Amino acid sequence: MKRIMTVQDISCVGKCSLTVALPIISAAGVEAGVLPTAVLSTHTAFPKFTFCDLTEEIQPISDTFSELGIDFDAIYTGYLGSFKQLELVSDFIDRHGKGATVVIDPVMADNGKLYSGFTPEFAASMAKLCSKADLIIPNITEASFMLGVPYNPNYDEAYVRELLRKLAGLGCRCAALTGIGFKEDEIGVYMYDSEKDSYYFYANEKLPASFHGTGDVYASATLGALMRGHSTENALRIAVDFTLECMRKTMQDENHRFYGVNFEEALPYYIELLK
Ligand code: PXL
Known about the structure:
Elements: E1 3-13, H1 18-27, E2 31-42, E3 51-53, H2 55-68, E4 74-77, H3 83-96, E5 101-104, E6 109-110, E7 113-114, H4 120-129, E8 135-136, H5 140-147, H6 157-168, E9 174-180, E10 186-193, E11 198-205, H7 214-227, H8 232-252, H9 263-274
Helix pairs in contact: 1-7, 1-9, 2-3, 3-4, 4-5, 7-8, 8-9
C-alpha cells in the first residue's frame, strides 16, 4: 500500500484541509499520514475562529521520521500558515520526499482575494516552495498572486497557457490551474507538463453554486488518483468529475450547510472512477 504525508491544518468544523484530505485519500486505498500545521475551530471564512499554531511541532516530527527511516510515496501540502512553515515544509520535502511525488496546493486565495491572514509577500514565498513540486494546483487567483500579475477573470485560452508556462517557470514539473472554463456552463482544469511540453484541458458541467472546501476536495482526489497509478491527466480529470459529484450531492441536500460539500456521499463514485 502506498503511504503519503499531507501537511495542512485541522479545522475542527468546516470540511476543508485535513478533515477532507484524510477520508478522500483513505477511500483511494492509500495510507494517509498527517502533519497538522495548526488547529482552528473552523476555517477562516467563519466570522470568528480560534487558531493554535503547531509550527514548533514540525521539526521534531521531521527529525523523528528521519531517525526511524520513515519516508513517503507522496508529500501533499495544502494550507500553510506562516513563512516559518514554508521553510520547514521545504526542509521536510528535502528530507522525506526523495523519489516521492510532491503535490503542492498553494491554498491562500480565491475570487481575486487573499484569504484572511495572507499577504502578497507570503504568495511570493509560496511560489518558491512550488519549485519543489511535481504538480502544483493553484486556482487562477493563487497563480496570479504567486506570479505577481493582476488577477484577470476574463481570460482566454492563450492567457491561461501563458500563465501555466510562467507557473512552470517557478520550477515545478506540472502546473495545473483549477476553476478554468471558456464557456458559461463549463468548469475544469488546465495543465501544462513542462517535461513533455504538453497541455491538457478537461472541463465538466459548471453548477450555479460555489462551496467552500472544493479546492481541498479537488487536490486530495487528484493525489489519491496519482497514488493509484493514474497519469497526471487522468488524475486531474477524475478529480473534476468527483468534485462535481460532491457539489451535486450537496445541492440535492436541501439542508446542506453553507460551508463544505457533501463529499462523503460521493466517495462511492470516486472509488468507481479510480478503477
Ligand atoms: O479550504 C482552504 C482552507 C483551508 N484551511 C483553512 C482555511 C481555508 C480557506 O479559507 O481557512 C484554515
